[in-house]
Design brief:
alpha/beta, 2-enoyl-CoA Hydratase, Chain A, domain 1, Lyase 2-enoyl-coa Hydratase, Chain  A, domain 2, 6-stranded mixed sheet, 4-stranded mixed sheet, 11 helices, 10 strands, binds coenzyme A
Length: 260
């Protein structure tokens, strides 16, 4: 598929996906969502990409939300399809099977905040602004925001953001645990690539398994999750990477993981 609204590049084992509609602050229209889905499926199937970064083009926005000109046309029937389509693409990000990092370089509003929430790690520029302003349009977040924001921060803070539609800056997002680090604007992408490369240098079997356990928290009880952890820990100890990692430590050298 040829992309009109996305850029994709790779640096070694790191993929960088840029939502590229800067004149509309990277708002997610239908075409962009289709391209996003196509790109995510390619990344999922590409054994040479270990970590994916998602960011926005231009100086102002990560993603300023779903495209309001398309939103305005929805009715009872089409709105459900619209919501479920975005949800399924964001679920694909969460369940990609490899780490996805949001580099939030500006406005992350509505569907843009939800896009960042679907990623596993969020780094932000000092200029980033977050919010779920849907209530200003007479709607609610429809791409998973009511669920992911509430689970990530806490119900009171999530309710305050969703019910007021207020925007918060990067410092407040950091205090709430919505992002894990803030960087000077021009350093954001390089710092995010450094993080991605660090993760990509580890044994990818263990990275994938760890992610699976972390994500299971949403669906399993604590005792089920603890049991899953033991099962997956055992699987790790049956990999070549485990032999390589432990031998390398004992031989005082760097591991050379084969990701098997
Ligand atoms: N959907 C469609 N177009 C959008 C958009 C969105 N979510 N967000 C921004 N745009 C467009 C604007 O319409 C404008 O297009 P135009 O130049 O053709 O008129 C362009 O992007 C630039 O936006 P503008 O509003 O002029 O920039 P600003 O710096 O004055 O304000 C925002 C920035 C983010 C505060 C403002 O654009 C905004 O409130 N956007 C909507 C955010 C939102 O409600 N998102 C949730 C949707 S569910």
């Amino acid at each position: 598929m040829e992309y009109k609204n996305l850029l994709f590049e790779r640096k070694n084992h790191v993929g960088i996906l840029t939502i590229n509609r800067p004149d509309k602050l990277n708002a997610l229209n239908n075409q962009t969502l289709d391209e996003l889905q196509d790109c995510l499926l390619n990344v999922q199937n590409d054994e040479n990409i270990f970590v994916l970064i998602i960011t926005g083009a231009g100086e102002k926005a990560f993603v300023a939300g779903a495209d309001i000109s398309e939103l305005a046309e929805l009715d009872l029937e089409t709105a459900k399809i619209f919501s479920e389509k975005g949800q399924s693409i964001f679920n694909l990000i969460e369940k990609l099977g490899k780490p996805v990092i949001a580099a939030v370089n500006g406005f992350a509003l509505g569907g843009g905040c939800e896009l960042a929430l679907a990623c596993h790690i969020r780094f932000a520029s000092e200029k980033a602004k977050f919010g779920q302003p849907e209530v200003n349009l007479g709607i609610i977040p429809g791409y998973g925001g009511t669920q992911r924001l509430t689970r990530l921060i806490n119900p009171g803070r999530s309710a305050e953001l969703i019910l007021t539609g207020d925007l918060i800056d990067a410092d407040d997002a950091l205090k709430m645990g919505l992002v894990s680090k803030i960087f000077i604007h021009d350093e954001l992408l390089n710092k995010t690539i450094l993080l991605a490369e660090k993760i990509a240098s580890k044994g990818q079997k263990a990275v994938g398994y760890a992610l699976k356990c972390i994500l299971s928290c949403d669906e399993l009880t604590k005792s089920e999750g603890i049991k899953l952890e033991a099962d997956i820990f055992a699987k790790c100890c049956n990999t070549d990477d485990f032999n390589e990692g432990t031998n390398a430590f004992l031989e005082k050298r760097k591991p050379n993981f084969k990701n098997t």
